[in-house]
Design brief:
- By secondary structure, the chain is an alpha+beta fold.
- It has a domain at 79-235.
- It has helices spanning 2-11, 17-24, 99-110, 189-195, and strands at residues 85-86, 89-90, 93-94, 115-116, 134-139, 142-149, 154-164, 200-204, 208-212, 218-221, 230-235.
- β10 (218-221) and β11 form a beta hairpin.
- The longest helix is centred in the middle third of the chain and has 12 residues, at 99-110.
- The chain is globular, with a radius of gyration of 61 Å.
- 26% of the residues are buried.
Length: 241
């Protein structure tokens, strides 16, 4: 085919090179390159983070109320008040009880004794007392007597008598000790008679004014008139009798 074209060109003045050039163009068909479509990743839907809804706290409006509180008067009860002056003992310590037990009991309420005679001859320590030996233990104006023999118990040491007063100072110590009906050293004779209508009053030339209750509790006074004062309270067999 090329030869024919050359011959033709030589035979006559045919078309110019510019005309032939297009005929020499070889068209090459290239198979289309397969294009891999991009992989589309489906979008991941992330649920929006929603802050938890907190119900609003409703605070009740504060209402201020003015309250008037009556003044309270606090009265301190003396610890010695538990040691009630009884006809058969002192508080929970009954006549006939072991001395060490009684002393420990009273000390628990009044503290350590202020004096202790120890066991002694009953004729020299406290006058004529029952038994072969006697002991007196004191807390201020309170004295407890112990013996090995009395009208209460015979043959062993025991508690048989107490005396509260007369006071060495302006008031009796320990303070707060009274009978169950609230009569003690410092009360008037009028209060004594009102509380115990059947009380017996005496005016002895040697012992002085005194009183005796039906229960057996006894004591002394400054006089017999209603404005006189009780000076001591005692119970149990007495020394000198």
């Amino acid at each position: 085919m090329v030869a024919v074209l050359v011959a033709a060109c030589g035979a006559d003045d045919g078309p110019s090179d510019e005309t032939i050039a297009p005929l020499l163009t070889t068209t090459t068909s290239t198979a289309p390159v397969a294009t891999t479509p991009p992989v589309t990743t489906p979008p991941v839907t992330v649920a929006p983070t929603v802050a938890p809804t907190v119900a609003p706290t409703t605070v009740a409006a504060s209402t201020t109320t003015s309250t008037t509180v009556a003044a309270t008067t606090t009265t301190s009860i003396p610890k010695a008040a538990v040691l009630v002056l009884r006809a058969d003992g002192l508080g929970d310590a009954l006549f006939g009880t072991d001395p060490d037990q009684v002393i420990a009991y009273v000390s628990a309420n009044l503290g350590k004794p202020t004096a202790d005679s120890g066991w002694a001859d009953p004729f020299s320590a406290f006058g004529v007392c029952p038994g072969t030996e006697v002991r007196g233990v004191t807390w201020g104006d309170l004295t407890l007597l112990f013996s090995d023999d009395s009208p209460i118990v015979s043959g062993r040491r025991h508690f048989f008598n107490y005396v509260l007063g007369p006071p060495f100072g302006a008031t009796v110590q320990p303070a707060g000790m009274t009978t169950a009906e609230r009569i003690g050293v410092g009360n008037t004779v009028g209060e004594l008679r009102f509380t115990y209508p059947n009380v017996e009053l005496f005016d002895d030339e040697l012992a002085g004014p005194s009183f005796l209750l039906a229960s057996g509790i006894n004591g002394g006074m400054t006089g017999l008139a209603d404005d006189e004062l009780v000076t001591f309270v005692s119970a149990g067999p007495r020394c000198g009798e």
